[in-house]
Structures are given as structure tokens and as C-alpha cells.
Amino acid sequence: MRRVARGDRRAFEELYRRTSPWLAVRLRRRCADEQIVAEVLQETYLAVWRAADAFAGAAAGGSAVGWLWTIAARRLIDAFRRRAHHAAPPAAAAPAHVAPAEEAVLAGVVGDEVGDALRLLAPELRAVLQAMVLDGLSVRETSVLLGVPEGTVKTRARRARIAMREALA
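-> C-alpha cells emitted (169 positions)
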């Protein structure tokens, strides 16, 4: 990221080569519209190129991939909002389960009991936790991303916390 921040095109190309397939898969899991996915990818990498010097994770031990996903998730929310003003909302991919890469991250971050409890959650509850906890989205952003009212997001988040508490008790 430091090299990208200094304007190193080769470093940027390498970042794109390494991360764009993974990022595209994650975006497709949240949006079935290929045009929106392509737009979000382009906007994300443009934002990274322009603001790589703003990445503070290197000093704080943060993840560049996490920063990249945060940018992409916010751009996806923005794309949904833009489309909502001009046409019907885009078809959202059904979040049937957590992506394998996310499961690997969870396995490394949380113990087996927590991972098992997450896998036992109903898909709609897991999707809310995924958006709010893993992706760091707000209730409003999660609402837009999942295409459900904010009240539903809050209810599902509460139900997910209760289910997790019971599973871990």
C-alpha cells in the first residue's frame, strides 16, 4: 500500500491482480447484477488509487484487504441507493451461507464453539451479523444491502445475538 500511495503503478497492478477476483466474488454474493458489480469494482480501485496514502492500517497493523472490502461495501451501498432512485432495486443474491473465505477468517478469529454457533444460525440472521460485524456496516447500510427495512435488520440482529448467547451458554 505504501508503494501504491507513492504512485507505483506496478504495485497497484499487483494489488489488483491479487485482490480483484476475491473482491468480485464477495460482491457477487451480495448483488446479482453484474453491471453493478463491475461499477463497484472500478469505483473501489479508483478510490484505492486516489487515497492509498489514507490507509492507516500499515502503522496500526490493519489489513489492506479489510480496508479494500470496507471501501467496496460502501460503494455497493451507494450503487444500490443510486439505482433505487432510477429504477427497481437490483436483485440481491440470497445470502444462503457465509463465503468459504469468511469461514476461514472466522475459524482463525473465533473458537470452534462460536464458529459452530454461527453456522447454526438461520441464513437471514447470519447475513445480518455478517454485514454488521464482519463488514462493519451500519443498520441503515445493512438494510440497503439486504433489501429489508431497518427495523427488520434490528430485529434480526437481536434474534441473532440471543441465539448466539443461547448456543454458547
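The CA atoms of residues 98 and 127 lie 8 Å apart.
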